[in-house]
Design brief:
The complex is a heterodimer. Chain A is of the alpha+beta class. Chain A has five helices and nine strands. Chain B is about 40% helix and about 15% strand. Chain B has 25 helices and 22 strands. In chain B, the strands form five sheets. Chain B has a six-stranded parallel beta sheet, sandwiched between helices. In chain B, helix 6 packs parallel to helix 7. The longest helix of chain B has 15 residues. Classes of the chains: A alpha+beta, B alpha/beta. The structure holds thiamine diphosphate and magnesium ion.
Amino acid sequence: MKHIISALVQNKPGVLAHVAGMFAARAFNINSLAVGETEDPSLSRMTIVVVGDDRTVEQVRKQLAKIVTIVKVQDFAGQDVVARDLMLISVACSPEKRPEILALIEMFTAKVVDIGPKYVTVEVAGPESKIEAFIEACRPYGIKNMVRTGTIAMARQSRTAGQQDKDAE
Amino acid sequence: MQFPTACGGRPVAPPLPTLPGSQSIVNILLEHGVDTVFGYLGAAVLPLFDRFRDLSWTSSLDMISPSQEIIMSKNKVKNEQTCKPGSQIVVDILQEENVEVLFGYLGGVVLPLFDKLYDAPIKFIIPRHEQGGCHMADAYARATGKVGVVIATSGPGATNLVTGIANAMMDSVPMVAITGQVRTELIGNDSFQEADTTGITRPITKHNMIIKNPLELPQALREAFYIARTGRPGPVLIDLPVDMQLAQIPVSSPTPIELPGFRNRTRGHARQISMAAQAINEAERPVLYVGGGIIISNASEELRTFAQKANIPVTMTLLGLGAYDQNRPESLDMLGMHGTAYANYAVQNCDLLIAVGSRFDDRVTGKVKTFAPHAKIIHVDLDPSSISKNVAVDIPVVGDAKEVLAAMTEEVEHRPRDTWFKQIAEWKAKYPLRYDRDARTLKPQYVIEEVWRQTKGEATIVTGVGQHQMWTAQFYKFSRARQFITSGGLGTMGFGLPAAIGAQIARPGETVIDIDGDSSFNMTLTELSTAVQYNLPIKVCILNNGYMGMVRQWQELFYGKRYSCSSLQNPDFANLARAFGAVGYTVDKKEDAAGVIEKMLRETRPCVVDFHVDREENVWPMVPAGKALHEMDGLNLFEIA
Ligand SMILES: Cc1ncc(C[n+]2csc(CCOP(=O)(O)OP(=O)(O)O)c2C)c(N)n1
Ligand SMILES: [Mg+2]
C-alpha cells in the first residue's frame, strides 16, 4: 500500500543525506521525496511516498523518528489529506495538432509555460491521478521530456472544504 | 630577509629595540583604537596573522576572517566576551563532561587539539592503530557506563575508526568520536588527507555532524555527549576542521540541551505495564529473555527482584550475559544459535516470552517464523524501532528497562509454576553444556573452565570473535553486569586485545582477561605495545587452534570439510609477546594449563598465554542458520548415560 509520510526536520545541512542514507541502508523503497522550507525557517518539511506493507511502513516511520535532526513524523494513511504533485512536461506539438493539444491542456486546467515550433511545455499540478492521466493523454503525441516534484501533502482542516476540493477535481 | 636600517647602513647609537614589521603594524592599529580587523589569510600576510593570533588572547583586537564575520557581528561578539581557541574549548568541554581518559592518534589536522591536551588533566592513551583506540574507548564505555572518547586525524585516521564506530553502533555503546578535518575552505577539493568523514560514518553513527561555524562548536560538542548517552546509547561523531580548532570562540557555559524531536520515553505506559503484568500473572510457562539493554540501563537489581518475585526463569543474549547471576538456579544461561539446549527449549515451549532490552537478533531467534511458537510476547525496549521489527509483539512497552521492571514488579504476583520449573530442571539435567572432559588433549573449553575456576568467576572477560567467544559465553559463568565485554552485533575479530586495554584502564587493579582466538588476536596484536607502554597487567589467553575455527566449523558442516583458506601460519605468540616487552607462555599439554594460568594471574605485566588446543573442536549445540531454535545439532554427542 502507498503511504504518504510527512516529516518535520531541522533545516540543517546533512539532514537530507541522513534520511536518504537511512532509506538505502534499510532497504526501504521510496516513490518520491519532496523537501522545502516551512513557515518556520529553522524547519523543513519532507514529504515521502513509500510503498510497503504496514509493518515496513511502521518501521520507516520509527526509523525516521530516530534520526536526531527529525522533529516529527506523521503517516497520513487513513487521514483526509490534500496531496499534490507538480509536473513540467514537453509534448510534441506540430502547428496542426496545436488546437487539439491546447484543448487537452484546458481540460486538465494545466498551463502552457513555453511554446516552440515543435513542442509545447506544460505545467500541471494536482493529485497524482490527474498527473498520470495527463501523461497518458499526451503519450500519443509524443513526450519529449518531463520532470515531476513528487507528492507534497497536508492534512485537511475541514471536511466540507475537502469535499468541495474533491468536487473541483 | 634583511631590513634596511633607517640611516643608510650606519648604526644608530644607542640602538633602538627593534620590532618585526608585523608587530609595528599591529601596534599602530591598536594606537588608533582599531578593535576588529577583517581579512583573509595568504602566504604574504602570514607574519601579520601570526601577530594577530597572539593578540587575540591578550588584547582587545579581534581578527575576523570573512567566513565568520557575519555570524560574529550578528552575535555581537566583542571584546567584552572572553574568547579561546576552539581546541581549548574542546578540552574544556571534555573536562566539563568529566572525561577522564581519551584514546586517540595524532595527525596534522588535530595538532591544535593535541597541543591543548598537553596541559590538560586528562589521561591520554595512544593506541598503535585508530581501530584499536576506538575499541579501547568502546570497552572503557562498556566497563564504566560512561561515554568513551576517541580522537583521530582526518582521512586515514578517520577511516581507520570506521570498524570501531560500527562496532559501538551495533552494540549501543555510548561514544564520542572527534575527527580532525582539513580546513573548511579546502573541503571538497580532494585535499591532502581529506575524506568525507560524516558521509562515510552516517549509517554507523547515532548522529554525526561537521562543524563549519566556530560558534556552533561548543553546543555541538555538548550535544554529542548528550545524544551519545541519552536513550539508546550510540556513537556520535564530530568532524572538526582544523580552522575550527584555531578559531577564537567565545567561552560559554553549558545551557540545557534541547533537541526538538529527540525524545526518549523512559517510563513505560501505565496501561501497557498493567497489561504485561496481567499476562505474566496468567502465564504458566513464562520465560524472561533479556539482552544488553538491562546492562545499559543498570537494571540488574530490578531484573533480579522482578524475576524472583514473579518466579520466572531468565535467559540472556550474548550481550546480556552478566545481567543475571548465572550461578542461580533460575538462570537458563545463553539462548540462540550456540545457546544452551535448556534455554532454547524453554523459549520454544513457553506460553509467555518477556523480552527486556533485547532485539530479536537472527542469531537469537533462528528461523523467525518458528520462534517461540506458543508464546504471547511482551517486549520492553527503549527504542520503539526495535519493537516488532523482526518479530511481531503482542504487548509492547516502550521504556527504560530499569523503570519498567520496577513498575512491573509492583503489579506481578508470585506463582509456583512447579511443573514448568520441573520441566526445565529435566532439560538442564539431560542437556547440560558439555565437552569431552576426560580427553587427554587440551580442550579449549577446559582452559575457559580453569580460568573461571581460578578467578572464582570474578574476572572481567573480553573476547575476540569466533568459537572461543562462544565457548567463553558458554563456560565462564558470569555473575554481574559489565563483567563480560564482547563484540556482539558486528562480530568484530580483533576486538579482544584493545578491549582488554580499555577495560583494564577502566578497572585498574582488577583482573582483566582477553580470551582470544589466534586469528582474531592476529588482527590487532600490535596493541600489545600499548599495553606495555601503559603498564597494564592484562592477560591474553589465546585458544590457538591454528584455524579461523568458527569458519572451519561451518566449512566442516556445510561445505564438505573443504577448509578453503581458513588456516593461517601463526607467529610464536609467546616469543612475540616477549619482543613487545610483555610476558609470554606456551601451553600444549593439558597437565600444564592450570599451572600456567596460575602464573599468568600473578603477572603484573601484560601476559600472553598461547594455548595449543585441539584443532578441530566444534561449538555445540548449534542451531544451523535457517532452522528453528529447538532444532539443535550436537546434543547427542556426549549423551549422558
Ligand atoms: C573482522 C572480521 N573478519 C572476518 C570475520 C568472519 N569470522 C568470524 S569468526 C572467524 C574466525 C575466527 O578465528 P579465531 O579468531 O582463530 O577464533 P576461533 O573461531 O578459531 O576460536 C572469522 C574469519 C569476522 N567476524 N570479523
Ligand atoms: Mg582460531
